[in-house]
Each structure stands twice: as structure tokens, then as C-alpha cells.
Amino acid sequence: MKRYVILISGRGSNMLSLLDAGLPGACAAVISNRPEAAGLGLAAARGIPAAVVDHRGFAAREDFDAALATEIERHAPDLVLLAGFMRILGEAFVRRFEGRVLNIHPSLLPAFPGIKTHARALAAGVRVHGCSVHFVTPALDGGPIVAQAAVPVQAGDDEASLAARVLAEEHLLYPRVARWFLEGRLALRDGHPRLAGETAVTAALHVPQTD
Ligand code: GRF
Hints:
By secondary structure, the protein is an alpha/beta fold. It is built from 6 helices and 9 strands. A 7-stranded mixed sheet has the order 3-2-1-4-5-6-7, with helices on one face. A two-stranded antiparallel sheet has the order 8-9. Helix 1 runs parallel beside helix 6. The chain starts with a strand and ends in a 16-residue tail after the last strand. The mean pLDDT is about 95. The structure holds 5-O-phosphono-beta-D-ribofuranosylamine. 5-O-phosphono-beta-D-ribofuranosylamine (GRF) binds next to helix 1, strand 5 and helix 6.
């Protein structure tokens, strides 16, 4: 059975959606860069080994990356899932785990990389927003996109209402993509996601019904 590790920094709702999805693999560990991350307790309550590699204990980013890589490799995972993990991972880390690290980001990339995506989407006046799952590269939220889910921006939306609508889609999309990988159907080849031998990955697009 394939093994995966989840990296978190906070609340851990995407982590829970992965743990509760019945994925065809074993979660070997949840690792946080913040000891106060609420998700650590949620993982422990499900009997998942939880570890902390606190980035504040390292003067240089590369040293944190190396310590994190060592902790991940202790669990010999086939797949590393970033789920609300709020640190940029450097070149050496990404090369070490090339093609084995996925991230979920709360926007339709390449729009709105980085933080505060929902406020920026509202300020830009976009009519459609959403989330993306991508392979991780050293470019912030810039790796090859595997799948996306879109939601409408509705009249009267504020940051919280839009974030909640996107988050509901994150919780569906990420387990779906993780399942593809753990089933051996999804891989990164020559920098491009490949799904089940097809030459292109079909985007997963869910647009909820509106009244
Ligand atoms: C999610 O919106 C995720 O896409 C983003 O940060 C948020 C983390 O939420 N990177 P949670 O910790 O998974 O609840």
C-alpha cells in the first residue's frame, strides 16, 4: 500500500478531508511547521503520528527545508500533500521530492498566487473563483496544474462567504487528485501532469447550482 505524508500549518480542514476520504494509501504522518497548529490535535485524535519541525528554530531557509526533508523521509512516503502549509519550499527540497509533492491553493491559478486570494478576487471583480491542485515547484504556487474547481462569485459576497464556498470545493478536489496519484494513475512527466496514460489532464470543474 502506498504511503503519504500531509504537511500543515494551521486549521487542518483539508488534512481532515484527505484523512476521511478513504484514500487507497496509509497516512504515515502529519507534520506541521507550527507547534500551535490546530490540525496536529485533529491528526493525533485519529491516531496519525504527528510531528513538528518549527521553522522558527532555523536561521536559514535551506536548513529548515533540510530538517523537514529528513523528517518526511523517516516515513518513506510515496506522496507528500501540502494542505494549508504556509512555507515556500526551496529548490533543493523540490528536486529531492520531484513529482511527489502536491499542493492545494485557493484560487484558479495562475490568478492570485500567494495569500489573501479571496479578498484579491473580490477586489478584482472576477465572476468566477475557485481552487487548484498542482505539483510543487520552487515557484510560489506556480507548479504544473493538475485540476481545478470553479465557483461563482455572488452579489453580496464578502471574503468569508467566498472563502467558505471555495473551501467546500477544496475538500472535494484534493482527495480526488490524491486518489489519482495513489492509484498510480497520475504522475508528472517532463514537467507535465499525466493522468492514466492520457496526454492531457482533464480539469475537474464543479459549478454549484445557484438560485
Ligand atoms: C486552504 O484554503 C488552503 O487552500 C490554503 O490555506 C487554507 C488552509 O486551510 N492554502 P486548512 O488548514 O486546510 O483548513
